[in-house]
């Protein structure tokens, strides 16, 4: 069974590995669902975006601890050949590397396919501290890269960050909620140019702005193309 994005409300996607009989599904936990560490501000913003998903304008993007679990359709099976069982078990996406809820990266992404836009609701926890009481700039770079990267992945398929340029305008208080808003500006051959703004929920504070260049790695179809075929 393959679903993308998953339609179930429990956030659990069932998939089968090619080397495993179909009676042995793998359950991947979706981390982009509310948990008890989410503040009221995070919950309100999440509900607002869920509401905007109802007419199909926006799509909630599930978040798993391993990048291969994000790849739908044929590419998913192909990717399994490229990654051993051991690698699957022993690796984790960097922003999903902490088990305790609320201490690290709490985030959820939403995609607007027609605008080629990905937003991320981000609540940085206490283990992301840089300056006292504020998020480390590296954690801000990580969430920007992940949001922009997911946006580029949606539009172009397998990509890598070639350049990421960030201007830090105002520090992000730990435990606050910010909106990371990214979009594809231009695609030229293998090059995908994107931009991003990180703002407070009320839009009054600009925390950071960024531009990025991603390079498409191969000729696989974009996730957008794959989704429209399903
Ligand atoms: C429904 C939607 C679902 C969306 C979500 C789905 C999935 C999400 C999945 C998982 C989510 C997880 C994370 C999100 C995704 C990503 C975030 C993390 C991304 C990273 O954390 S990634 C690690 C850091 N990243 C690197 O570790 C890159 C090291 N690097 C290289 O691996 C190579 O460098 C490479 C591949 C970049 C290029 O190498 P290459 O050999 O393929 O290509 P080449 O060098 O020929 O460049 C081709 C043309 O780009 C120009 N060019 C290249 N680099 C440039 C630069 N820096 N500035 C200006 N121009 C540049 C050249 O000048 C040439 O231009 P021209 O063709 O005009 O001459």
Can you describe this structure?
This protein is of the alpha+beta class and 230 residues long. The chain has one domain: Hotdog Thioesterase (Thiol Ester Dehydrase, Chain A, Roll), CATH 3.10.129. It contains five helices and nine strands. Strands 3-4-5-7-8-9-6 form a seven-stranded antiparallel beta sheet, with helices on both faces. It is globular, with a radius of gyration of 17 Å. The two termini are 13 Å apart. The N terminus is likely disordered. It binds ligand 3IX. The site of ligand 3IX has 20 residues, from helix 4, strand 6 and strand 9.
The CATH topology label is Thiol Ester Dehydrase, Chain A
Mean pLDDT: 84
Q: Order the strands across the largest sheet as they lie in space.
A: 3-4-5-7-8-9-6
Order of helices and strands: EEHEHHEEHEEEEH
Morphology call: globular
Oligomeric category: single chain
- Uncertain ranges: 1-25
Identify the CATH homologous superfamily: Hotdog Thioesterase
Q: Helix count? A: 5
Structural class: alpha+beta
Major β-sheet, in short? 7 strands, antiparallel
Helix content: 10-25%
Task: Tell me which CATH architecture applies here.
Answer: Roll
Whole-number total of structural domains: 1
Beta-strand proportion: 25-35%
């Amino acid at each position: 069974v393959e679903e993308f994005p998953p339609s179930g409300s429990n956030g659990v996607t069932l998939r089968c590995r090619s080397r495993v009989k179909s009676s042995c599904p793998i359950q991947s936990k979706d981390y982009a669902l509310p948990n008890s560490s989410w503040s009221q501000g995070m919950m309100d913003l999440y509900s607002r975006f869920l509401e905007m998903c109802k007419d199909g304008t926006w799509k909630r993007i599930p978040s798993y601890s391993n990048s291969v679990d994000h790849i739908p359709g044929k590419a998913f099976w192909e990717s399994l050949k490229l990654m051993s069982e051991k690698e699957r078990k022993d690796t984790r996406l960097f922003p999903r590397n902490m088990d305790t809820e609320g201490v690290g990266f709490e985030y959820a992404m939403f995609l607007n396919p027609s605008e080629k836009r990905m937003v991320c609701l981000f609540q940085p926890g206490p283990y992301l501290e840089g300056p006292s009481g504020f998020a480390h700039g590296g954690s801000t770079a990580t969430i920007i890269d992940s949001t922009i990267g997911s946006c580029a992945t949606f539009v172009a398929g397998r990509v890598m960050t070639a350049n990421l340029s960030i201007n830090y305008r105002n520090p992000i208080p730990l435990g606050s909620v910010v909106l990371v808003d990214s979009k594809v500006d231009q695609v030229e051959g293998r090059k995908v140019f994107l931009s991003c703004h990180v703002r407070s929920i009320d839009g009054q504070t600009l925390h950071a702005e960024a531009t990025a260049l991603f390079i498409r790695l191969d000729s696989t179809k974009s996730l957008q193309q794959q989704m429209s075929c399903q």
